Design the sequence.
Protein backbone atom coordinates (compact mmCIF):
# COMPACT_ATOMS: atom_id res chain seq x y z
CA UNK A 1 0.00 0.00 0.00
CA UNK A 2 1.22 3.52 -0.56
CA UNK A 3 2.90 5.45 2.18
CA UNK A 4 4.63 2.52 3.71
CA UNK A 5 7.91 3.17 5.36
CA UNK A 6 8.86 6.46 6.93
CA UNK A 7 6.48 9.06 5.55
CA UNK A 8 7.93 11.87 7.59
CA UNK A 9 11.63 12.35 7.90
CA UNK A 10 12.82 12.98 11.39
CA UNK A 11 14.03 16.54 11.13
CA UNK A 12 17.20 16.95 13.04
CA UNK A 13 17.50 20.11 15.06
CA UNK A 14 21.26 20.00 14.54
CA UNK A 15 21.93 21.68 11.23
CA UNK A 16 25.01 21.71 9.10
CA UNK A 17 27.15 24.61 7.96
CA UNK A 18 27.02 27.78 9.98
CA UNK A 19 23.57 27.04 11.33
CA UNK A 20 23.50 26.65 15.07
CA UNK A 21 21.54 23.85 16.69
CA UNK A 22 18.35 24.86 18.44
CA UNK A 23 19.79 23.78 21.77
CA UNK A 24 22.81 26.02 21.24
CA UNK A 25 20.56 28.92 20.26
CA UNK A 26 18.54 28.43 23.42
CA UNK A 27 21.74 28.68 25.46
CA UNK A 28 22.49 31.99 23.77
CA UNK A 29 18.93 33.21 24.29
CA UNK A 30 19.35 32.36 27.97
CA UNK A 31 22.27 34.82 27.92
CA UNK A 32 19.91 37.33 26.28
CA UNK A 33 21.30 37.17 22.77
CA UNK A 34 18.51 38.81 20.76
CA UNK A 35 19.96 37.64 17.43
CA UNK A 36 19.76 34.04 18.62
CA UNK A 37 16.12 34.60 19.54
CA UNK A 38 15.44 35.86 16.02
CA UNK A 39 17.17 32.88 14.44
CA UNK A 40 15.06 30.57 16.55
CA UNK A 41 11.98 32.59 15.60
CA UNK A 42 12.76 32.41 11.88
CA UNK A 43 13.19 28.69 12.16
CA UNK A 44 10.04 27.84 14.05
CA UNK A 45 7.54 30.71 14.13
CA UNK A 46 5.58 29.72 11.04
CA UNK A 47 5.10 26.16 12.30
CA UNK A 48 4.09 27.42 15.74
CA UNK A 49 1.62 29.86 14.22
CA UNK A 50 0.00 27.14 12.12
CA UNK A 51 -0.15 24.93 15.19
CA UNK A 52 -1.63 27.66 17.39
CA UNK A 53 -4.17 28.48 14.68
CA UNK A 54 -5.12 24.82 14.32
CA UNK A 55 -5.62 24.55 18.08
CA UNK A 56 -7.51 27.74 18.63
CA UNK A 57 -9.10 28.25 15.24
CA UNK A 58 -8.58 32.00 15.54
CA UNK A 59 -5.64 33.54 13.73
CA UNK A 60 -5.32 36.79 15.66
CA UNK A 61 -5.38 35.10 19.06
CA UNK A 62 -2.97 32.52 17.68
CA UNK A 63 -0.62 35.38 16.73
CA UNK A 64 -0.79 36.62 20.32
CA UNK A 65 -0.01 33.13 21.54
CA UNK A 66 3.07 32.87 19.30
CA UNK A 67 4.25 36.28 20.45
CA UNK A 68 3.84 35.19 24.04
CA UNK A 69 5.72 31.99 23.23
CA UNK A 70 8.84 33.88 22.17
CA UNK A 71 8.61 36.34 25.06
CA UNK A 72 8.45 33.29 27.29
CA UNK A 73 11.43 31.71 25.51
CA UNK A 74 13.34 34.97 26.02
CA UNK A 75 12.57 34.96 29.71
CA UNK A 76 12.85 31.26 30.45
CA UNK A 77 15.40 29.81 28.01
CA UNK A 78 17.67 29.03 30.95
CA UNK A 79 15.03 26.59 32.15
CA UNK A 80 15.32 24.46 29.03
CA UNK A 81 16.85 21.08 29.83
CA UNK A 82 19.60 20.26 27.36
CA UNK A 83 18.61 16.60 27.13
CA UNK A 84 15.10 17.48 25.96
CA UNK A 85 13.96 18.36 22.43
CA UNK A 86 14.01 22.12 21.76
CA UNK A 87 11.24 21.78 19.22
CA UNK A 88 9.01 19.80 21.57
CA UNK A 89 9.68 22.47 24.23
CA UNK A 90 8.64 25.29 21.88
CA UNK A 91 5.44 23.51 20.92
CA UNK A 92 4.65 22.92 24.59
CA UNK A 93 5.04 26.62 25.39
CA UNK A 94 2.87 27.56 22.41
CA UNK A 95 0.26 25.04 23.44
CA UNK A 96 0.10 26.48 26.95
CA UNK A 97 -0.18 29.98 25.52
CA UNK A 98 -3.07 28.89 23.30
CA UNK A 99 -4.83 27.18 26.17
CA UNK A 100 -4.72 30.32 28.24
CA UNK A 101 -6.68 32.04 25.46
CA UNK A 102 -9.14 29.39 24.48
CA UNK A 103 -11.35 27.49 26.81
CA UNK A 104 -10.99 23.89 25.79
CA UNK A 105 -14.02 21.90 24.94
CA UNK A 106 -14.48 19.22 27.56
CA UNK A 107 -13.26 16.07 25.95
CA UNK A 108 -16.19 13.74 26.32
CA UNK A 109 -15.43 11.23 23.63
CA UNK A 110 -15.02 7.80 25.07
CA UNK A 111 -12.58 5.28 23.75
CA UNK A 112 -14.43 4.00 20.71
CA UNK A 113 -13.13 0.64 19.49
CA UNK A 114 -10.57 0.91 16.71
CA UNK A 115 -12.68 -1.45 14.58
CA UNK A 116 -15.63 0.92 14.80
CA UNK A 117 -13.45 3.90 13.92
CA UNK A 118 -12.12 1.94 10.94
CA UNK A 119 -15.61 1.20 9.67
CA UNK A 120 -16.59 4.84 10.15
CA UNK A 121 -13.54 5.82 8.14
CA UNK A 122 -14.66 3.53 5.32
CA UNK A 123 -12.97 0.18 5.89
CA UNK A 124 -14.66 -2.39 3.64
CA UNK A 125 -16.47 0.30 1.68
CA UNK A 126 -14.73 0.99 -1.64
CA UNK A 127 -17.11 3.85 -2.49
CA UNK A 128 -16.23 5.61 0.77
CA UNK A 129 -12.54 5.27 0.03
CA UNK A 130 -12.97 6.74 -3.43
CA UNK A 131 -14.77 9.67 -1.81
CA UNK A 132 -11.93 10.19 0.63
CA UNK A 133 -9.35 10.12 -2.17
CA UNK A 134 -11.41 12.69 -4.07
CA UNK A 135 -11.78 14.97 -1.06
CA UNK A 136 -8.11 15.07 -0.15
CA UNK A 137 -7.38 16.76 -3.46
CA UNK A 138 -9.05 19.85 -2.05
CA UNK A 139 -7.16 21.84 0.61
CA UNK A 140 -10.45 23.38 1.70
CA UNK A 141 -11.96 19.95 2.29
CA UNK A 142 -8.88 18.90 4.28
CA UNK A 143 -9.05 22.05 6.41
CA UNK A 144 -12.78 21.63 6.90
CA UNK A 145 -12.42 18.00 7.94
CA UNK A 146 -9.68 19.00 10.44
CA UNK A 147 -11.97 21.67 11.86
CA UNK A 148 -14.64 19.04 12.54
CA UNK A 149 -12.36 17.16 14.94
CA UNK A 150 -12.16 17.80 18.64
CA UNK A 151 -9.20 19.60 20.16
CA UNK A 152 -7.19 16.53 21.15
CA UNK A 153 -7.46 14.98 17.71
CA UNK A 154 -6.66 18.22 15.88
CA UNK A 155 -3.72 18.87 18.17
CA UNK A 156 -1.97 15.57 17.62
CA UNK A 157 -2.52 15.70 13.85
CA UNK A 158 -1.20 19.28 13.73
CA UNK A 159 1.95 18.27 15.60
CA UNK A 160 2.82 15.01 13.87
CA UNK A 161 1.18 15.00 10.45
CA UNK A 162 1.18 18.71 9.60
CA UNK A 163 4.34 19.95 11.34
CA UNK A 164 6.28 16.72 11.16
CA UNK A 165 7.28 16.25 14.79
CA UNK A 166 8.39 12.72 15.55
CA UNK A 167 6.11 10.68 17.77
CA UNK A 168 8.78 11.00 20.49
CA UNK A 169 8.76 14.79 20.23
CA UNK A 170 4.96 14.97 20.17
CA UNK A 171 4.74 12.72 23.24
CA UNK A 172 7.15 15.03 25.07
CA UNK A 173 5.26 18.11 23.98
CA UNK A 174 1.89 16.75 25.08
CA UNK A 175 3.24 15.10 28.25
CA UNK A 176 2.03 11.69 27.13
CA UNK A 177 3.73 8.32 27.14
CA UNK A 178 4.81 7.21 23.67
CA UNK A 179 2.15 4.47 23.75
CA UNK A 180 -0.59 6.95 24.66
CA UNK A 181 0.59 9.35 21.96
CA UNK A 182 0.54 6.62 19.31
CA UNK A 183 -2.92 5.52 20.35
CA UNK A 184 -4.21 9.08 20.20
CA UNK A 185 -2.55 9.66 16.83
CA UNK A 186 -4.02 6.52 15.31
CA UNK A 187 -7.52 7.31 16.52
CA UNK A 188 -7.22 10.92 15.37
CA UNK A 189 -6.15 9.81 11.89
CA UNK A 190 -9.10 7.46 11.61
CA UNK A 191 -11.50 10.17 12.78
CA UNK A 192 -9.93 12.56 10.28
CA UNK A 193 -10.55 10.09 7.45
CA UNK A 194 -14.11 9.61 8.71
CA UNK A 195 -14.57 13.40 8.68
CA UNK A 196 -13.28 13.52 5.09
CA UNK A 197 -15.71 10.82 4.16
CA UNK A 198 -18.61 12.74 5.68
CA UNK A 199 -17.53 15.88 3.81
CA UNK A 200 -18.52 14.14 0.64
CA UNK A 201 -22.12 13.87 1.71
CA UNK A 202 -22.46 17.56 2.61
CA UNK B 1 -15.16 -6.45 11.71
CA UNK B 2 -17.86 -7.79 9.47
CA UNK B 3 -16.34 -9.73 6.62
CA UNK B 4 -12.83 -9.72 7.98
CA UNK B 5 -10.53 -12.63 7.51
CA UNK B 6 -7.28 -14.09 8.77
CA UNK B 7 -4.74 -13.54 6.02
CA UNK B 8 -0.95 -13.64 6.29
CA UNK B 9 -1.26 -14.52 9.96
CA UNK B 10 -3.20 -11.38 10.85
CA UNK B 11 -6.86 -10.51 11.18
CA UNK B 12 -8.10 -7.36 9.46
CA UNK B 13 -8.71 -5.83 12.88
CA UNK B 14 -5.05 -6.48 13.76
CA UNK B 15 -3.91 -4.82 10.55
CA UNK B 16 -6.21 -1.88 11.28
CA UNK B 17 -4.80 -1.55 14.81
CA UNK B 18 -1.23 -1.51 13.46
CA UNK B 19 -1.92 0.73 10.48
CA UNK B 20 -0.51 4.02 11.78
CA UNK B 21 2.68 2.41 12.98
CA UNK B 22 2.98 0.61 9.65
CA UNK B 23 2.60 3.84 7.71
CA UNK B 24 5.10 5.56 10.01
CA UNK B 25 7.65 2.77 9.61
CA UNK B 26 7.57 1.95 13.31
CA UNK B 27 6.77 -1.75 13.22
CA UNK B 28 9.34 -4.51 13.62
CA UNK B 29 10.28 -6.34 10.44
CA UNK B 30 8.38 -9.49 11.35
CA UNK B 31 5.11 -7.59 11.75
CA UNK B 32 5.78 -5.57 8.59
CA UNK B 33 6.13 -8.85 6.67
CA UNK B 34 2.82 -10.06 8.08
CA UNK B 35 1.04 -6.81 7.19
CA UNK B 36 2.45 -6.97 3.66
CA UNK B 37 1.35 -10.57 3.27
CA UNK B 38 -2.12 -9.56 4.50
CA UNK B 39 -2.64 -6.55 2.25
CA UNK B 40 -1.29 -8.48 -0.76
CA UNK B 41 -4.42 -10.60 -0.52
CA UNK B 42 -6.97 -8.54 1.42
CA UNK B 43 -8.28 -5.78 -0.84
CA UNK B 44 -10.36 -4.17 1.91
CA UNK B 45 -7.26 -3.54 4.01
CA UNK B 46 -5.09 -2.68 1.01
CA UNK B 47 -7.53 -0.02 -0.17
CA UNK B 48 -8.20 1.27 3.32
CA UNK B 49 -4.50 1.54 4.11
CA UNK B 50 -4.04 3.48 0.90
CA UNK B 51 -6.76 5.97 1.74
CA UNK B 52 -5.42 6.53 5.26
CA UNK B 53 -1.85 6.99 4.02
CA UNK B 54 -3.04 9.43 1.34
CA UNK B 55 -5.08 11.36 3.90
CA UNK B 56 -2.01 11.71 6.12
CA UNK B 57 -0.02 12.97 3.13
CA UNK B 58 -2.77 15.54 2.50
CA UNK B 59 -2.32 16.84 6.05
CA UNK B 60 1.35 17.46 5.36
CA UNK B 61 0.31 19.78 2.50
CA UNK B 62 -1.23 22.08 5.10
CA UNK B 63 2.30 23.23 5.92
CA UNK B 64 2.36 25.24 2.72
CA UNK B 65 0.31 28.06 4.12
CA UNK B 66 1.53 31.35 2.67
CA UNK B 67 -1.02 33.36 4.65
CA UNK B 68 1.25 33.27 7.68
CA UNK B 69 3.92 35.54 6.15
CA UNK B 70 2.53 38.94 7.12
CA UNK B 71 1.59 37.72 10.59
CA UNK B 72 5.10 36.35 11.09
CA UNK B 73 6.59 39.71 10.13
CA UNK B 74 4.34 41.51 12.63
CA UNK B 75 5.24 39.19 15.48
CA UNK B 76 8.95 39.31 14.61
CA UNK B 77 8.92 43.11 14.76
CA UNK B 78 7.67 42.91 18.33
CA UNK B 79 10.24 40.42 19.59
CA UNK B 80 12.22 41.36 22.70
CA UNK B 81 15.44 42.99 21.64
CA UNK B 82 17.44 43.79 24.74
CA UNK B 83 18.05 42.27 28.16
CA UNK B 84 15.66 44.67 29.84
CA UNK B 85 12.72 43.64 27.63
Sequence:
Amino acid sequence: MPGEGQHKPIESTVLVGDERSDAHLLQRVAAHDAAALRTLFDRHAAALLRYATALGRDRSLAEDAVQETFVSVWQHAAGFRAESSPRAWLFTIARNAVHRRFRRKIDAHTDVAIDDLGVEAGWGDPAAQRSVLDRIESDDAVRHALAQLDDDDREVLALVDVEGLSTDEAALSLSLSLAALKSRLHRARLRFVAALRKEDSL
Amino acid sequence: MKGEGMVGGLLCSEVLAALSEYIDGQLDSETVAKVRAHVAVCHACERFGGSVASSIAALRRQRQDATTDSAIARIRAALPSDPSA
